[in-house]
Amino acid sequence: MERRGKRAEHSNTDRWLVSYADFITLLFAFFVVMYSISSVNEAKYKVFSDSLNIAFTQRLTATAPIVPPNQPLVAPAQQRTQTTATLAGRNKVLVDKRTAQLGEQQRKIEDRMKKLANGLSQVMAPLIKQHMVNINHARRGVIMDISASTLFGTGEAVLQDSSLNILRQVAVVLSKEDMPIEVEGHTDDTPIETAQYPSNWELSSARASSVVRILIDNGVPAKRLAVVGLASNQPLAPNNSAENRARNRRVTITIASPNLDREAGG
Predict the structure, then answer these.
(1) What is the pLDDT of residue 18?
(2) What string of DSSP letters covers 146-196?
(3) What is the C-alpha to C-alpha distance for residues 132 and 121, in angstroms, rounded to an integer?
(4) What is the pLDDT of residues 139-156, one digit of tens each?
(5) What is the per-residue pLDDT across 198-247, written as a single tens digit (0 to 9) for each?
(6) Which pLDDT belongs to residue 32?
(7) CA dist 209 to 55, 118, 226, Å?
C-alpha cells in the first residue's frame, strides 16, 4: 500500500487579530473610565454645595448671641454683672417677704401672749393687789410668781383650801392654750430636815407637783406640764431679811412662748 503523504501545515497569519481586539477593548474601557472620572454632575454638585452653605450658616447663627433690635451687644462681664444684680434683687425680695411673714407671726404671738397675761391678771387681781402674785410678760413667755404662803403652810406641800379656787380659775385660763407650761418650786435658804422633806429640794419639788396635780384635775393636759424643784438656788432677793425670804418662797408658773426659729426649722 502506498503511504499517504503528510498534510502540509499552513501557518495562521490572523492570530494577531485576537490580541488586537483585546487591546482595543482595554483601551475603550480605559477611556470610558477616564471620561466618567472627568465628567462632573452639575446637579449633584450644586446640591452638595447648597447643603454645606446651609450647615455652616445655621451653626454660625446658633452660636451668635441674640440681640434685640436697636440694642447693643452686651459684653460677658456686663452680662455677669446684670445677672448678679438680678439675683441679688430677687434674693432681697425673698428676704423681705420672709421677714414680713416672721414679723406678722411674731406680732400674732405677742398679741396671743398679752391676751393670756391679761386673762391671768383678771383671775389673780385680788392677790396681785396684795402683792402675793406677780405676772410678767417676758421674751421667754408669761411668768407668774405665786407666794408660797398663799398656797401652803410653813414647811408643807399640801395646798390650802383657800388656794384651790384660785388655782382652778388659773387652770381654766391655761386649758384654752396649747403652749408648754413649766411649774417651778422655790424656797429660801433656811434648811429643812424632816422625815417627809429631808431638804429644800424635796420640799420645792413637792410643792410644784401639788400645783401641777390641781391643774391636771381641772383640764390642763398633763403632756404640756413639767415640774421643776429648784430649792433656794434662784432667789428673787438676797435671803437677808424675813421679807426677802418670803419673796423667795414661791411657785413660778411659766407659759412658754412659741419658738419661731424652731417652727421655721421644722
Answers:
(1) 77
(2) EEHHHH--TT--SPPHHHHHHHHHHHHHHHT--S-EEEEEE--S-----SS
(3) 12
(4) 889 999 999 999 999 999
(5) 999 999 999 999 999 999 999 999 999 999 999 999 999 999 999 999 99
(6) 74
(7) 87, 25, 9
CB of 257 within 8 A of CB of 139?
yes
Q: Alpha-carbon distance 76 to 189, whole Å? A: 75
Residue 147 corresponds to which cell in the numbers above? Answer: 407666794
Residue 3 is classified by DSSP as P
Contacts of 197 (CB under 8 A, 6+ apart): 155, 157, 203, 206
Q: Quick one: cell of 231?
A: 430649792
CA distance 31 to 28: 5
Instruction: Say whether pLDDT at 9 is over 60.
Output: no
Following DSSP, what letter does each residue of 218-249 receive, concatenated? TT--GGGEEEEE-TTSS-SS-SSSHHHHHHHS
Q: Are 236 and 145 within 8 A, CB to CB?
A: yes
In this structure, which topology does domain 106-258 adopt according to CATH? 60s Ribosomal Protein L30; Chain: A; (3.30.1330)
Considering the entire predicted model, what is its pTM? 0.61
Cell of 23: 487591546
Structure confidence by residue, pLDDT tens digits, 119-137: 999 999 999 999 999 999 8
Q: Judging by beta carbons within 10 Å of its beta carbon (0-12, 13-18, 19+), is residue 266 exposed, middle or buried?
A: exposed
Residue 3 phi, psi dihedral angles, 5° rounding: -75, 140
